[in-house]
């Protein structure tokens, strides 16, 4: 697999458009279903997007969700000489962290681990780091080193090195997380990777964009420093942020068959590559599920696979424009568990527009304008 495509301006070789390919692999859920372990796992580690419940928690620790459906990973390297890791490029968090050789948890045993003693450029930051999960935590410490993203070195980047990890992480495919949200969300006041890319003049524009393939294992891409016209069609709809911590926007309403079924009067939502589904308040998610003909079973909103072609679209009305999700985009079919919608409820009023939404709409994250751009994905 190619690690990156780098396009640099002739007049300023230091400022580039950097493209990092993402692999679409099996999610933890798919692997567990194949092994007949999904029900046991779901009982032990129920999905809980706790990181979105209380922003006061971010003063001392970063919150992460235990989303077993995440399937898109990219490769970065850290240190001199470089040590490689797969990470989730996560617009719902701001810290970079990976497992370290000092971690003896089962979750670290089956992932790549960073060895600081093998890097001539590593410096210990002298700070501890704690990341809370819905069902456990990751603890470790912070250090500085060169992080290579898409072939471009980001110097003196702070990152977390885990010393213990929650048991469910053993089932996750990626080694770690590369957060792409705002600095205000970062634990320990760590500077996010993209902020250093901007400060070090490594990108052509202060924006990045995400393209996620629907079915293909290859083709997904994060583009730093610009947009890729090959990945979208039509016009880009620019939506101002309502808060600069997450990539947070205002949704006016959600309709099915022309009727408002959720978010009546408006609601807040984040565009989040680190969540696989559409997540919202329980009452609204139940209303949406009923409207499309789904019913609750074993924690999922399930449908008859034979009815998918006749199911209605969901329409998210945002900043005066309609963003339509046909049933083919929000229904997933499992070999073992039939068809389910990508609708999940939480105890928070903050909605999450996850990978289901981003697969349909090429998503652009502009730090220069503090806006999200959405365009129909190719």
TrEMBL record:
Q: What's a Gene Ontology MF term here? A: aspartic-type endopeptidase activity
| EC assignment | 3.4.23.1
Task: Show which residues constitute the signal peptide.
Answer: 1-16
* The keyword Transcription belongs to this UniProt entry's keyword annotation: no
- This protein is called pepsin A
Family named by the database record: Belongs to the peptidase A1 family.
Q: Which Pfam families match?
A: A1_Propeptide, Asp
Q: Which residues form the active site?
A: 90, 272
Query: Gene for this protein?
Result: LOC120045427
């Amino acid at each position: 697999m190619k690690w990156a495509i780098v396009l640099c301006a002739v007049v300023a070789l230091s400022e580039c458009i950097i493209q990092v390919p993402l692999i679409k692999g099996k999610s933890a859920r798919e692997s567990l279903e194949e092994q007949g372990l999904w029900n046991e796992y779901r009982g032990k580690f129920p999905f809980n997007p706790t990181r979105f419940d209380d922003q006061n928690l971010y003063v001392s620790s970063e919150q992460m969700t235990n989303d077993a459906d995440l399937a898109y990973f990219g490769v970065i390297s850290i240190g001199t000489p470089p040590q490689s890791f797969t990470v989730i490029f996560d617009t719902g968090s701001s810290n970079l962290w990976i497992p370290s050789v000092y971690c003896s948890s089962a979750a670290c045993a089956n992932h790549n681990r960073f060895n600081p003693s093998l890097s001539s450029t590593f410096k210990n930051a002298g700070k501890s780091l704690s990341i809370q999960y819905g069902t456990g935590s990751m603890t470790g410490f912070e250090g500085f080193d060169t992080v290579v993203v898409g072939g471009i070195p980001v110097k003196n980047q702070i990152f977390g090195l885990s010393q213990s990890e929650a048991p469910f992480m053993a089932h996750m495919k990626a080694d770690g997380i590369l957060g792409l949200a705002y600095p205000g969300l970062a634990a320990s006041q760590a500077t996010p990777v993209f902020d250093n890319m901007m400060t070090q003049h490594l990108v052509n524009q202060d924006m990045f964009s995400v393209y996620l393939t629907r079915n293909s294992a290859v083709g997904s891409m994060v583009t730093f420093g610009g947009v890729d016209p090959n990945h979208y069609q039509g016009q880009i709809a620019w939506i101002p942020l309502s808060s600069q911590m997450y990539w947070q926007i205002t949704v006016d309403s959600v309709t099915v068959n022309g009727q408002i079924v959720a978010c009546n009067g408006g609601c807040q939502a984040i565009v989040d590559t680190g969540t696989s589904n559409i997540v919202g308040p329980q009452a609204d998610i139940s209303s949406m599920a009923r409207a499309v003909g789904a019913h609750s079973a074993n924690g999922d909103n399930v449908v008859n696979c034979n009815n998918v072609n006749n199911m209605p679209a969901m329409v998210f009305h945002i900043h005066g424009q309609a963003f339509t999700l046909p049933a083919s985009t929000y229904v997933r079919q499992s070999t073992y568990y039939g068809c389910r919608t990508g609708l999940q409820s939480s105890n928070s009023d903050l909605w999450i527009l996850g990978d289901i939404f981003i697969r349909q709409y090429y998503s652009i994250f502009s730090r220069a304008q503090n806006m999200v751009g959405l365009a129909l994905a190719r």
